[in-house]
Amino acid sequence: MSRHSHWAKIKRGKGSADAARANLFTKLSRLVTVAAREGGGDPAFNFKLRLVLDRAKGEGMSKDAIDRAIARGSGVGGGEVIETVLYEGFAPGGAAVLVECLTDNRNRALGEVKSVFTKQGGNLGGEGSVRWQFERRGVLRVVVNSQRSTVDREEMELALIEAGAEDIREEDGGLVVLTNVEDLQRVREAAERAGLTIADAGLEWIPRQLVDVSEAERGAFEAFLAALDDLDDVQDVYTNARGYA
């Protein structure tokens, strides 16, 4: 369910649209459940849940499905215990990969992820093998109004920086704003006050340095990412490959 722009474009062309949407809603439901379990079911007092709900609603997830996921996370009716697991390794060609899973069965998740690495020519590593090549950051993606003047743009960026933004990059006609984990909520609120349209916000693993994927390796690399993303337990796939990070 990677949100990275280049990879998202590739995935849109793969597989049945209905199956892909069902898979997406399953993953979003787990995100909502975990966020509600960790911080409570009221988004007014749970920033992580608020972020996930914005994402779920933006993808068209129904209110009933969202309410059921919140109820599960709040302990209503019992149900499965979902936990976050992070796997590390190398893709075909050597790029580093982090695979973030939400699962009710660690053994199943590990088996399925390991199978993809083995069959697709990757190499599943141990804990700490590639995580050092990434850092956990708050990421805010905003849509920029093309009618804004240069002065407006400068004032907007200054407001975000004053709120805690550490880096602001242009991407696909919008801006990607990077923050420390603890500053994401404050920067998001500053963006809202500035009247910016927020396309997405959350915590991601950002590569410290990028590596190139050769043309000869590109097909195998993309097939590997697609196979991981197709797994029900996989929430996000992060890589330090240039053009896919």
Q: Care to describe what's here?
A:
- By secondary structure, the chain is an alpha+beta fold.
- The chain folds into three domains: 5-73, Integrase, N-terminal zinc-binding domain (Arc Repressor Mutant, subunit A), CATH 1.10.10.200; 83-132 and 208-239, 2-Layer Sandwich (Alpha-Beta Plaits), CATH 3.30.70.980; 134-207, YebC, transcriptional regulation domain (Alpha-Beta Plaits), CATH 3.30.70.
- Helix content is 44%, strand content 24%.
- The chain contains eight helices and eight strands.
- It has helices at residues 5-12, 17-39, 47-58, 63-73, 106-119, 150-163, 184-193, 215-229, and strands at residues 83-90, 96-103, 123-125, 134-143, 165-171, 174-179, 197-207, 234-239.
- Strands 3-1-2-8 form a four-stranded antiparallel sheet. A four-stranded antiparallel sheet has the order 5-6-4-7.
- A hairpin with a 5-residue loop joins strand 1 (83-90) and strand 2.
Task: Set out the fold topology.
Layout: H1 5-12, H2 17-39, H3 47-58, H4 63-73, E1 83-90, E2 96-103, H5 106-119, E3 123-125, E4 134-143, H6 150-163, E5 165-171, E6 174-179, H7 184-193, E7 197-207, H8 215-229, E8 234-239
Helix pairs in contact: 2-3, 2-4, 6-7
Order of helices and strands: HHHHEEHEEHEEHEHE
Output the structural class.
Answer: alpha+beta
Our count of helices gives: 8
Q: Assign the CATH architecture of the largest domain.
A: 2-Layer Sandwich
Percent in strands: 15-25%
